[in-house]
Amino acid sequence: MRIGVYPGTFDPITLGHMDIIRRGAKLVDRLVIGVTTNITKSPMFDDDERIAMVQAEVASIEGDIRVVGFNSLLMDFAEREGANMIVRGLRAVADFEYEYQMAGMNQQLNDRIETVFLMADVGLQPIASRLVKEIAIFGGDIQKFVTPSVRDAVVARIAERGLLQGER
């Protein structure tokens, strides 16, 4: 069985992530979406909220897709899931340089698991969760970047935490 792991913080999940998930699910028998916390980022949503958000967003995608939280080395998580492939999305050259380095380090940790890169759809390449949150915090419209339910969750979280900035 071909099992792929698509890891990320998904804070929040974007249309770019959804594109990679749809396409990645076609390459494997099972796609495990690994939701993790990156210690260098300050998440807007906690682990359980992000897992639930991703589960809701991928529910309609065909294929064997599991959403699992993890807090360990990616290669340890992938090994536990029985994966033979890590799926990563690329938006630009800057992504490639970072991802290339990560793939090399991961190969040193476990050379039985390959990293496969998928180029983001051209129309979705500029989307980044960090930028989506920044646009929303300054009152901008994020509907081009996320689904309506994710947009509502982001707007609600900003209001709940009093994060709205700029002129009101």
Mean pLDDT comes to: 94
Q: Sheet with the most strands?
A: 5 strands, parallel
Largest sheet strand order: 3-2-1-4-5
Determine the strand fraction and express it as a percent band. Answer: 15-25%
CATH architecture: 3-Layer(aba) Sandwich
Strands, total number: 5
> What's the alpha carbon Rg, rounded to whole Å?
16 Å
Structural class: alpha/beta
Total tally of structural domains = 1
User: DSSP helix count?
Assistant: 6
CATH superfamily: HUPs
Poorly predicted parts: none
What would you note in describing this structure?
The protein is of the alpha/beta class. The chain has one domain (3-122): 3-Layer(aba) Sandwich (Rossmann fold). It contains six helices and five strands, in the order E-H-E-H-E-H-E-H-E-H-H. A five-stranded parallel beta sheet has the order 3-2-1-4-5, sandwiched between helices. It is globular and about 50 Å long.
